[in-house]
Specification:
The complex is a heterodimer. Chain A has a single domain (2-248), classed as Rossmann fold, CATH 3.40.50.300. Chain A is 36% helix and 27% strand. Chain A has ten helices and twelve strands. The N and C termini of chain A lie far apart (37 Å). By secondary structure, chain B is mainly α. Chain B has a single domain, classed as ABC transporter involved in vitamin B12 uptake, BtuC. In chain B, 79% of the residues lie in helices and 0% in strands. Chain B has helices spanning 2-24, 34-63, 75-90, 95-98, 100-124, 130-154, 157-167, 176-194, 197-203, 207-212, 217-239, 244-257, 262-286, 294-316. Chain B is globular. Classes of the chains: A alpha/beta, B mainly alpha. The interface between A and B is medium-sized, with 31 and 21 residues. Chain A: GO terms for molecular function: ATP binding; ATP hydrolysis activity. Chain A: This is ABC transporter ATP-binding protein.
């Protein structure tokens, strides 16, 4: 379990994240939702130590993450941000192999190779493993990066808007894979989402942020209802039940 | 993978050939006189080449930019300023100018101290993007150059010639002892740096990915900056400002090897430097019969290559 306690981040005097306390339950998909500028990505970056928190603490299975060695932390928590610019030319296999760095520091063992193969198989990348990243479509690239994180084999996987710029087919594909990671392999997934319907259909728990504060935190059923969504988004959003899923019809509200 | 190994071997062979050519061509049996003098020069060129290749590749990786050289941090300008200050205040016959040992030690120490102060000051002021550091480097470097020009205008013309000697890299009169001192420092820096090669591979993936993969990004960047400054300081104090050269070999190495592995990239760039410096110096001596200096040729060729890189980058962006 990841416990976030009183976490704040200020840019100048403005609090982007203000005294946020949240529990991330193990072996569940937790979605962070909320309007633009609510502090979702900042919160995720602080939990994953990409940026330092100004106040508060993050406990990972009872250990304070600040005291942890970078390498140890990277074996337990992985993070993928939305844009990944790099100025080296890598093949998919090379990128996914980097996921094993915390375990083997660049000298891959047989076990590492096994993890890399598995991750690529999971993301359906084996038949193009030698293609270069800059020759791929946005969706394929995103899958390659997610494969890297899977190869890293951490208990906790944090993803910052992984569905950005993806079409419907690839979005659904990625969400299904995340579901399998949780159900089959017992991983814990935290994901920042913009489309609440993906959050509604695929997540176990939802944390809603607004203006740097947590406004709602609960199971998916507790959040996906018109009254809670009104509070989060200031919109009247009717909910329709289809194929056992709650769908928010926000397009013309 | 194997292709890269063959390419590396080709470079090593070429480097050995160019060194041998330089050492033994038209030696005419002068083993006692000419050979040791040539050996000192070859050693100095090899050391400089390795130091510059190494520091440039590191620097480009941490700045994520392939058309920068460490000279942007202002160390070269500081070196020329120092030489100008010595002549301006102490005169061209003062021990700091005449005695190469004193000059070497003073130059190295002041450049390293300057770099450390700059980094300390900048990293203390909180987390800033690396471009902020570069910007400060450019400003400080320009500031040094301006003072230098101002002082040089005031210097007696005869004294100015003394400064001018130091403004361009030259391998023509290098002190044998200094080569050993430089060798000591550079060897230590290389041994320390070799342990970070895998981390550098990860750094080239960008800050977020590097931290995700468990690399303490800020600490490593700081260490690599210091390492690169030490190498630049030593090579500049040994032969003069020649960092522009690193741009050529680093980029040639990226093109030639097409890998992300710094062990290969840096080794390749180092051997390319040796080939270019030793081979170039041989051409200067045998073809141009000393009518020009190596650094003029390097700046000429490097300038053309730099323009080519700029055009290429702007087209791909």
């Amino acid at each position: 379990m990841i416990q976030v306690r009183n976490l704040s981040k200020f840019y100048g005097k403005k609090a982007v994240v203000e005294k946020v306390s949240v529990d991330i339950h193990p072996q569940k998909i937790t979605s962070f939702i909320g309007p633009n500028g609510a502090g979702k990505s900042t919160l995720l970056s602080m939990v994953s130590r990409l940026i330092d928190a100004d106040t508060g603490e993050v406990m990972l299975d009872q250990d304070d993450v600040r005291g942890m060695k970078s390498n140890e932390f990277a074996k337990r928590v992985s993070i993928l941000k939305q844009s990944n610019f790099m100025n080296v030319r890598l093949t998919i296999r090379e990128l996914v192999s980097f996921g094993r760095f915390p375990h083997s520091r660049g000298h891959l063992t047989e076990e590492d190779e096994k993890h890399v193969d598995q991750a690529m198989e999971y993301m359906d990348l084996l038949d193009m493993e030698d293609r270069y990243l800059d020759e791929l479509s946005g969706g394929q690239r995103q899958r390659a990066f997610i494969a890297m994180v899977i190869a890293q084999d951490t208990d906790y996987i944090l993803l910052d808007e992984p569905l950005n710029n993806l079409d419907m087919k690839h979005s659904v594909q990625i969400m299904k894979i995340l579901r399998r990671l949780v159900d089959d392999l017992g991983k814990t997934v935290v994901i920042v989402l913009h489309d609440i319907n993906f959050a509604s259909v695929y997540s176990d728990r939802i944390v809603a942020l607004k203006d740097g504060k947590v406004v709602r935190d609960g199971t998916t059923d507790e959040i996906i209802n018109s009254e809670a969504l009104k509070e989060i988004y200031d919109m009247d959003i009717p909910i329709k039940r289809m194929n056992n899923c709650n769908i928010c019809v926000y397009f013309n509200s | 993978m194997r292709k890269n190994r063959t390419r590396l071997i080709v470079l090593i062979v070429l480097a050995i050939v160019s060194c041998a050519l330089y050492l033994f061509y038209e030696l005419n049996g002068s083993y006692d006189y000419a050979l040791p003098r040539r050996a000192v020069k070859v050693a100095a060129m090899a050391l400089t080449g390795i130091a510059i290749a190494y520091s440039t590749v590191i620097f480009q990786t941490i700045t994520h930019n392939r058309i920068l050289t460490p000279s942007i941090m202002g160390l070269d300008s500081l070196y020329i300023l120092l030489q100008t200050l010595f002549v301006f205040f102490l005169g061209s016959m003062h021990v700091t100018v005449v005695n190469q040992h004193v000059n070497f030690v003073l130059s190295v120490i002041s450049m390293i101290v300057f770099a450390l102060l700059l980094y300390k000051f900048l990293f203390q002021a909180g987390k800033r993007p690396i471009y902020f550091l570069l910007l400060v480097g450019i400003i400080v470097g320009t500031f040094f150059s301006s003072i230098t020009t101002f002082l040089q205008v005031l210097i007696d013309p005869n004294e100015f010639l003394r400064v001018q000697d130091k403004m361009f890299a030259s391998f023509n009169n290098i002190n044998g002892d200094l080569v050993w001192w430089a060798f000591g420092i550079i060897a230590i820096a290389l041994i320390i740096g070799w342990r970070y090669m895998e981390e550098l591979d990860v750094l080239s993936l960008g800050r977020d990915v590097a931290i995700n993969l468990g690399v303490p990004y800020d600490a490593i960047v700081k260490r690599m900056l210091i390492l690169s400054s030490v190498l630049i300081a030593v090579s500049t104090a040994l032969v003069g400002p020649i960092t522009f050269f690193g741009l050529i070999v680093a980029n040639l190495s990226y093109q030639y090897f097409n890998t992300y592995k710094h062990k290969i990239l840096i080794t390749g760039a180092a051997f390319m430097s040796i080939i270019a410096l030793v081979g170039g110096q041989w051409i200067v001596e045998r073809v141009f019969s000393f009518s020009t200096t190596l650094s003029v040729i390097i700046n000429f060729v490097g300038g053309i290559y730099f323009i080519y890189l700029l055009l290429k980058e702007s087209r791909s962006a």
